[in-house]
Amino acid sequence: MNKKDLGLLVLILVVGLGVYLKNPLFLSPNNLANTANLIGLFGLFAIGQGFVIITGGIELSVGSMIALLGVLFVDMVGNKGVPWPIAMAVVIVLGLALGLAHGLLITKLKMQPFVVTLCGLLIYRGIARGYTADATAGFPFGSVYPGLDFFVARYFGIPVSVYVLAVVAVIAWFTLHRSVFGRYLFAIGKNEEAARFSGIRTDLVVTSAYVICAGLTALAAIFFAMYTRSVQPSSQGNFYELYAIAAAVLGGFSLRGGEGSIVGVILGTILLQELQNLVNLLGIPSSLNFAVMGGVILIGVIVDQQWGAIRARRRIVEAARGTPTATASPEREVS
Amino acid sequence: MPDGGSPVGEPEMAGKPFLRLTGVRKTYPGVVALAGLDMTVSPGEVIGIVGENGAGKSTLMKILGGVTKPDSGTVEIDGVRYDGLTVGGSMRAGIAFVHQELNLFDNLDVAANVYIGREPRTGGILNLVDEKKMRADVAPYLRRLGAHFAPDTPVARLSLAQQQMVEIARALSVNARLVILDEPTSSLPIAETDKLLEVIAGLKAEGIAVIFISHRLAEVERACDRVIVLRDGVLVARLDRAEVTHDKLVKLMIGRDLKVAYAPPHAARGAPVLAAHGLRTATWPTHDVDLELHAGEILGLAGLVGAGRTELARVLFGVDRAYGGAIRLDGKPLTLRGASDAVERGIFLVPEDRKGAGILLDMTLAQNITLPDLPAYAPGGLVSETRELVRAEASRGELAIKAPSVTTRTASLSGGNQQKVVLAKWLAMKPRVLIFDEPTRGIDVGAKAEIYRLMRGLAEAGVAVLMISSDMEEVIGVSDRVAVMHEGRITGILERAQCTEENILTLAIGAPLARAG
User: Fold this and answer.
1) ipTM over 0.95
2) Other CB atoms within 10 Å distance of the CB of residue A13
3) Is position A115 within any domain?
């Protein structure tokens, strides 16, 4: 955990304390579990988004994917009688396929990620709405699916989604921060040309990032469908891609690529959900929800950048004061 | 501490000097960048400044440009003493810079670039840019420079030398009286360099003073009336044109003889390793390249910029697809789907664009060095930092990379050391073919010599080395054979004995050699 993450954590705790003092319900087991569940759900695809952003790309179709895959899942299980494990597998495979399509369009046809995934955003939402003729997809009244209760269950008072996020986060952390593939992701994000000239299969690596993102999004889509129980194709997952991007930015990702961490994106997700909760608990009209989030993100990024600039200046001053002749070689470049 | 050339002392110039520096001193923490420099520049004089990286040239330029203030000493311009010279003050005093990396907007035309930031306006409510006047005003400057392009030519369509002319035209348009050219020829092909030197002569004839900074000593010899040699912030010699010789300059710059600069060529040439048969690149899709690269040789690839040398290198390295023809490795056909295929087979490229394609500036030395072969440092798929650092330390020792540590970001290294990092990447693997594209561009004399030694060492170890270079001295000095390219074709291959500047130039412009031989 670096200093940036620590700062974010402190902010989360301070905001939490403030909310608690205004409304003690904040720390009630039920509120905590609910918020934790949302963190689990949003965290899953925010991590996926993080993989894409590291490469310097962006995935805008997350929300629409959650709607489309959610609709399909509920329809398969509720109306078509498909056993839920098969429906789940189909949904995940479909998600991976969408990610693969995005990756190939971006790497092979050299399209811009923004354009490809913006089209995805429109297309998947449209298909979801067309498929159900804009009707809500839901399970038949009174039907029970014992296996599916797992997705909304709590163990030791903690929602399943949190456990799943924890497992995913640990795997993602090793993948991004320790594995060869992770190093390639950073290298491509920092300078794709130099990465290619080092013999890295950049197309393969970039495509994999989109596949990972879509896979995690598909998983989240099932959780969301089970959480909402019915899927409204025109509103399910609206703006979720922006939550993911915002979480990543708060967590220290650079949209130019090459910078970011799993801890950061998770802390970003936590802060966003905490703010949502704050709006509810403090009686702020929920219509102001987005305004609060936007304001906090804006201030956060400004403070972070200014602080970074101050630190950089201080480092230069310190270097200028205390550098002995021994390290003259890099300094000599200046002369 | 003069140890060569004429004694250090300011010769009295006939006219009043335009610029006079007295005892200019500047120190950075731990480094004396300039140790009390005295120099004058008179109108119509061309002064060469040479020195290795870190000799103090950049500091001197920064002081003249008003970017940095000297700790002590005085700067006098046109008889006026400046104590706190500012950027604006330097400009108003008539000093103009043409930088190594051109500051042009290639989406704009020539006239717009010359007048950027001070465009003539039409007036009135809209107050638009007066394009007509701007173009009309620029035309005379271009004529004075002997430039054969119109003011409305998009800069993107100009050659590098022509782009430099645009920068010089900008200097003329602000009535500059001293034009400072920082490494203007380092990226120019031979023919264009001549053009630039003509332009310098033209400026001189108009009474404009010129300071010419270059690593290319041959051009310094040709262009300058006087040459100033800096070493470690000290002015070690002032030479008149007649006294300037290449050997003397090198010796003064590095403070010792550099006879080892070009290691002796290897005796025996091995079997052909990499061969191109009728290879076509996208730039010259109708022209075939046939070339055989042998183990143990350094094959120089000369030619004018645009001859298709870099494109050939990119195809051989797999980053671009061949437009036609075949590549053979050890006699077997080779299909490259990407650079990764080439790397797998031991075909490596040290690219021309060091900072853009050679290294990752934002990553550490160690991370750069291990990148092409990362799985070898990652038992079980997880990168072992210890293994990385061990490898990087070894590379740092072998190549004498000057860096505070292997976890330093490569952005903070000098050009020569960055180039060594690029090399270290490939040397950490098993190279069979190593392609160098302009390996020593912008690198100082000392680091150049080390890179030549490394190249020769590789060739002697049986690696096939292909070296693209626009530096004539380098091509002739380093190569065992020289292939010359013109418009996408190899127009001739010269054995060492035939490698003369004349022969290479003749082939480079597509003319046949006078006598076969």
Assistant:
1) no
2) 11
3) yes
Chain A residues inside the 8 Å CB shell of B30: 323-328, 331
Q: How many domains does chain A have?
A: 1
CB pair distance less than 8 Å for B408 and A330: yes
pLDDT at residue B59, rounded to an integer: 86
Interface of A with B in 170-189 (CB under 8 A): 174, 178-181, 183-184, 186-187
Q: What are the C-alpha distances in Å from A130 to residues A64, A134, A135? A: 13, 6, 9
Mean pLDDT across A317-321 = 65
Supply the pLDDT for residue B8.
42
Residues in chain A closer than 8 A to B319 (CB atoms): 196-197
Whether the Cβ atoms of residue A115 and residue A102 lie closer than 8 Å to each other: no
- Over residues A41-77, the pLDDT tens digits come to 999 999 999 999 999 999 999 999 999 999 999 999 9
User: What is the rounded CA–CA span in Å between residue B7 and residue B5?
Assistant: 7
Query: In this predicted structure, which of A13-27, A80-94, B311-325, B495-509 has the lowest mean pLDDT?
Result: B495-509
> Nearest Cβ partner of B29 from A183, A193, A320?
A320
What tokens appear for B235 in the block?
Answer: 């002015």
> Is B383 in Cβ contact with A174 (below 8 Å)?
no
Question: CB contact, 8 Å: B367 with chain A?
Answer: yes
Does position B91 have pLDDT exceeding 80, yes or no?
A: yes
Please report the pLDDT score of residue B261 as a whole number. 56
Give me the pLDDT at residue B53, please.
66
- Quick check: is A303 in a domain? no
Assess B123–A contact: CB distance below 8 Å, yes or no: no
Closest CA to A116 of A130, A128, A101: A101
Interface test with B, best of A193, A321, A332, A333 (most B CBs within 10 A): A332
Q: Is residue A196 part of a domain?
A: yes
Task: Inform me whether the C-beta atom of residue B428 falls under 8 Å from chain A C-beta atoms.
Answer: no
- State pTM to two decimals: 0.79
Q: Look up the domain containing A226 and give its range.
A: 35-266
Candidate from B29, B381, B408 with C-beta closest to A179: B381
> What residue ranges define each of the domains in chain B, with the CATH number in brackets?
1-94+177-257 (3.40.50.300), 102-170 (no CATH), 270-346+430-517 (3.40.50.300), 362-429 (no CATH)
Please check whether residue B294 is in contact with residue B265, taking contact to mean a CB–CB distance below 8 angstroms: no
Q: Cβ(B296)–Cβ(B459) under 8 Å?
A: yes
B408 contacts in chain A (CB < 8 Å): 330
Considering only CB atoms, which chain A residues are within 8 Å of B353? 193
DSSP track, B464-500: EEEEE-S-HHHHHHH-SEEEEEETTEEEEEEEGGG--
Tell me the average pLDDT of chain B.
86
Would A327 be classed as within a structural domain?
Answer: no
Backbone torsion region of residue A205, taken as left when φ is above 0, otherwise alpha when ψ lies between -120 and 50, otherwise beta:
alpha
CB contact B129 to A (< 8 Å): no
